Amino acid sequence: MNTLRIARRLHRSLAVARPRAFHSSPTWLSGHNKWSKIEKRKGANDLKKGALYSRAYREIALAVRSGGSTDPALNNALAAVLQRVKSQGVPKDNIENALKKLSGESGKGDTHLIFEAMGPGSVGLIVECLSDNPNRTVKFLSTLLKDHGARMADVKFLFRREGRVKVALEPGDDIDARLEKLVEVALDADAEDFESEDLPDGARAVEFKCPHTSLHKLTSALTAPGVCRELISSELVYAPLEPLEGLEEETVESLDKLVEAIEDLDDTLRVWTTAD
Question: In whole angstroms, how far apart are CA 145 and each of 141, 241, 258, 259?
């Protein structure tokens, strides 16, 4: 055996095998892949936070509109909303900035807008918006309505403006008796009708309807000490005079898509329809 062949065999026997990687990606890309996953998670979380903050701003704006004040000490509906959005994790700075903007202190007060439209199946819609650029809002909404087979139209006569106040009663064996007392208090404060439902924790939610001019009176009466456990909501709504029934499935699907698209607009506060 010649010297060259012996040298080759000796080299193979002493060679150290390279460790196999547990993934198919090149080693230099592993950090990049890890960062991509983190970046995707962060992006998804940012979107969720953005949606939460936008929804909180809308709720605060509606409470200010309904209660007539940006001071929670003078606006029970606003106090209830602020308590809820804080528990959801909305930062204090976001809440304070929203209140400043709605009060005009920031110098960037928004314009409150009401739009009326006729949707699929001759369903009437009222869209409530808050915008720092009304022309932009009108343009976006008009285009969106056209894309969904709807149009601007006078439909407000199909609705009634009314107040809605929703409260909760503590669970207990005497809940029916306390409900009766609650209704008496509400009737004395101009309530016209109510609906109740049992909550998972044994409490009972009760929603009262009243003339829009009596919303503050009814809210104050129901939130007096010892009357209820908590105020869930207090707002002005557009309720259909004659809710449409028996709509075709295709019409319902088209209407749902339209309402969802309108609600996705940044300036939209609420959407009401005659199909509600």
Answer: 6, 23, 7, 10
- Cβ(234)–Cβ(164) under 8 Å? yes
Angle at 139 between CA 135 and CA 142, to 5 degrees: 135
SS3 for 151-193 is EECCCHHHEEEEEEEEEEECCCCCHHHHHHHHHHHHHHCCCCE
pTM (predicted TM-score): 0.72
User: How remote is the C-alpha of 141 from its chain's centroid?
Assistant: 19
Segment holding 40, helix H or strand E: helix 30-67
Distance separating alpha carbons of residues 55 and 235, to the nearest angstrom:
15
| pLDDT for residue 171 is more than 50 | yes
In tens, the pLDDT along 16-38 reads 445 444 445 555 455 556 555 55
* CB contact at 8 A, 215 and 236: yes
